[in-house]
Amino acid sequence: MAARVDLSTQACDICRKRKVKCHPPPSSDATTRCRRCARLNLPCTFLSPSRTRGPKKRTRPGAELGASSRVSADNRDSDAKYSTDDLGDRGLFTLIMQDYLDYLYPLVPIVHRPSFKQSLEESRDCEDGGFLSLVMAIAAVVVATMPSRFQLYQSYHPPLRFASRREMARYCYDRIMRLRDSTYFDQINFQKFAISYLLYAAFRQLGDHNMSRMLDVEATQIARLLNLHRISEYEGLNCIETQLRKKGFWLIFYGFVHNQLQNVLGERLSYLDPILLHSINPDDLMPLEVDDEMIFEHEVLLPPSPTPCLVTGFIIHSRVFWAAVRSPCLESPAEPCPCVRARDPTVQVAYLQDRLHSLKFLLEDIPPPLRAWQPLDAEIIPNGDGGGRVADVRSQFASMRANLHVTHLWLQSLLIDQLETAQAHKKGQSSISMAHTQPNADAKALWLQREDLCRQLFCILYSLPQINLEANGLHLAYKVRDIAASLLVCPFHPADPEAERAAEYLRQSTDILSRLDSSEGMVTMHLQTWVDTDRVKT
């Protein structure tokens, strides 16, 4: 016979809000909190007035979103069962969270997967404003990145109550801001970094660059305060927190490299300066090569032999970004500082050639699941989520392959751009004037490299399913566009075979971009999109 479970005659405020049974503490326990509040370290109060039993009149949560998205969620529906009901049905919200785990987590692993799943199952967002902000930020980045899933959410029953992805992302942002007060930044943690980073990623995916650059600054500031870049500051963290912060460093580092190579207007603040960059040993900050399910607070279960997992792709991707700005070999001679390279074109050319050579051969010996042209019978190891869903893991690896190899080609293309400029500067010419002269041996060699990058790019993009390309969001489209745009300034005569091949590559790029570019507005990444009202003439 099952043991009798004692229940409180009156549920505490937290248990009433969650509509769950309230278990009093054991009689031997001196605490006055119920078991749930004691376990979650929450205040256990009985302040809410009692209500008459029986069915309650429910309004449809969020039905008036179209009238005003600024109405407080608390006033919208005081009887809402879940804190996310203003977004939509809980089943739909759960689907959005699962889509993050299935499609975006391999590329943005900013949560500890088992802990995150458990918190979702326990509806922790109903009692923890920090976790509610996190899931709202995740919902924003999912809809911002994957338009096909957003269309599915709109056809759900009941459907998502937003007309566009931008409308939903902005609503999530507003809701998160309402959860903050004036003391929000007095205490920081990795979760607050994750929220800012996810919102930055969401608005960047939507092409809302003004909002994304401000959120980038916020995420960068929290990352600096948490000292994600200093391995010496990791002492005292548990295993889960250590792994999360190492991943967080590389996520913010990706943006740093983007800004280093593409900060055309010079308006973005930098995460690292040259001194800090040269003080970092990338190996110290690489996450452990195991799935989250093997990491617990006080121990990590390592496999008996190295096995490719999702973190393997994350590590290799991080090394690609590192190689774009620093030598992957720590024993290499000291690299010239930026000020020396700026003064001496010969030093700059040699530096860029070294970076390009390091990048080109970086992916020669990587595990089969991550190779650009994966054989059909390549072994895929199921992840440790307990489900053993091999098909899902294959899809996640496919998304990572697109991210890894397109990024690898894109970074090489950017370095070739810089190398052409440096060579022109060395010869006392502008890169534009060189485009109208007969190409010399150096220019021809660089052009052949551009052609090779395009051939590899098309092979990768045509070999992967659309859903895996879509999971990479607008970042993928931007990188493809950058690689293709480099072919517009062709140094050869239009009748030359090189020029004809360039025209064909551009036609193929246009076809691919028509499928990849899912932005809801005009791309303005390299244009000034802000208005300085002090300069506006009346």
TrEMBL record:
<keyword id="KW-0539">Nucleus</keyword>
<dbReference type="GO" id="GO:0009893">
    <property type="term" value="P:positive regulation of metabolic process"/>
</dbReference>
<dbReference type="InterPro" id="IPR001138">
    <property type="entry name" value="Zn2Cys6_DnaBD"/>
</dbReference>
<dbReference type="Pfam" id="PF00172">
    <property type="entry name" value="Zn_clus"/>
</dbReference>
<keyword id="KW-0804">Transcription</keyword>
<dbReference type="GO" id="GO:0000981">
    <property type="term" value="F:DNA-binding transcription factor activity, RNA polymerase II-specific"/>
</dbReference>
<dbReference type="InterPro" id="IPR036864">
    <property type="entry name" value="Zn2-C6_fun-type_DNA-bd_sf"/>
</dbReference>
<dbReference type="InterPro" id="IPR050797">
    <property type="entry name" value="Carb_Metab_Trans_Reg"/>
</dbReference>
<feature type="domain" description="Zn(2)-C6 fungal-type">
    <location>
        <begin position="11"/>
        <end position="46"/>
    </location>
</feature>
<dbReference type="GO" id="GO:0008270">
    <property type="term" value="F:zinc ion binding"/>
</dbReference>
<keyword id="KW-0805">Transcription regulation</keyword>
<feature type="compositionally biased region" description="Basic and acidic residues">
    <location>
        <begin position="73"/>
        <end position="82"/>
    </location>
</feature>
<dbReference type="GO" id="GO:0006351">
    <property type="term" value="P:DNA-templated transcription"/>
</dbReference>
<keyword id="KW-0238">DNA-binding</keyword>
<dbReference type="GO" id="GO:0003677">
    <property type="term" value="F:DNA binding"/>
</dbReference>
<dbReference type="InterPro" id="IPR007219">
    <property type="entry name" value="XnlR_reg_dom"/>
</dbReference>
<protein>
    <submittedName>
        <fullName>Beta-glucosidase</fullName>
    </submittedName>
</protein>
<dbReference type="Pfam" id="PF04082">
    <property type="entry name" value="Fungal_trans"/>
</dbReference>
<keyword id="KW-0479">Metal-binding</keyword>
<feature type="region of interest" description="Disordered">
    <location>
        <begin position="48"/>
        <end position="82"/>
    </location>
</feature>
